[in-house]
Amino acid sequence: MNRPLLTEEVAGYTVTTYRVTPEHTLTVAHETGVGRERPGNGGTRWLQYDSLEEARAEALVLAQCMTRKHALYDTGFRGTKLVLDGPLDLPDRSVVHEALARVLEQHDGALYTGCDLNTTSADMRAVAERYPAVLDSLGNPDIDTSVSTGSGVFAALMTTLELGERPRVAVHGLGKVGGQVARLARQAGFTVAGHDIRPDAAARLGVQPVGHEELFTGGYDVVVLCSLSGIVTEELAERMQARWIVASANSPFATEAAQRIVEERGIRYLPDFVANSGAVLCDAVEWREPELFARLDQAAMDRYVMRSIQARALTVLTEADLYGRTPQVVAVREGALPQELAA
């Protein structure tokens, strides 16, 4: 595990892959300049990819998304992502916990991680027992950063609406993040539909269940993406009927062409790294002010996240409207990547 299987420098990032089991690899992508004063921070995602190349490419793209979030919200972190590639039904997850801890230990305080897709708080506690560079509300069990993320996405959604508007909202993915978005939208009096791979998820939240295709083509005012990366294909972009896309899922477009099609059709997009930064805002408080973080409750953390994201999203949308630009163009400039800063 200590010896990398493959490492390379790519446009200001270091991408390193380790062998964890005969069927699992761990790829770590981070800005090359990480250090104790400005460490890398990003969650650990676990999926089974079609190839090692695909896993490494996703790790890099997600690390770049984290860079934009950290820059946009001035968290003090640099962009990082950890990607486990292999079967999810590993009988003994301790081998993964050990591998993650060893990678963090090798970086000696220059990398922090937390939950992402298919990793849990229980996983992060197990990693932290081996090496403590984990930010997942371990110092305050009253806070769930996924709930805070959902609250922040809802705050971002609100910035897309006209005063007094009661929109039709569709949420793709009804886990902790999407479930919180749906819950807050219902409380606000909006008409809410949702789609999830679990058939009973929408009913449990009291929202209208819809199919995958219907969610995108049903003419909802705002489509909120809280599931997988790359969910919007070019074919789907051609058929989508919505006024706004608000993304929680990182990199929601399958290709640059899919995003271009959406924008050319007049569907506006509030980027994921603007809307879904609740967890990194929580992490920044936990890292900078651990004693303060330990005293907070969920409501206080959510208020901080919602106000921070609402303020940043309003700034992005106001500038986009003033200069006739897309929110993506404005947000990308404010959350620049290393290679963009060097250009």
TrEMBL record:
One of its GO terms (molecular function) is oxidoreductase activity, acting on the CH-NH2 group of donors, NAD or NADP as acceptor. Belongs to the Glu/Leu/Phe/Val dehydrogenases family. One of its GO terms (biological process) is amino acid metabolic process. The lineage of its organism: Bacteria, Bacillati, Actinomycetota, Actinomycetes, Micrococcales. The keyword Oxidoreductase applies. InterPro entries: Aminoacid_DH-like_N_sf, Glu/Leu/Phe/Val/Trp_DH, Glu/Leu/Phe/Val/Trp_DH_C, Glu/Phe/Leu/Val/Trp_DH_bac/arc, NAD(P)-bd_dom_sf. It holds the Pfam family ELFV_dehydrog. Keywords: Oxidoreductase. This is Leucine dehydrogenase. It comes from Kytococcus aerolatus. Residues 143-340 form the Glutamate/phenylalanine/leucine/valine/L-tryptophan dehydrogenase C-terminal domain.
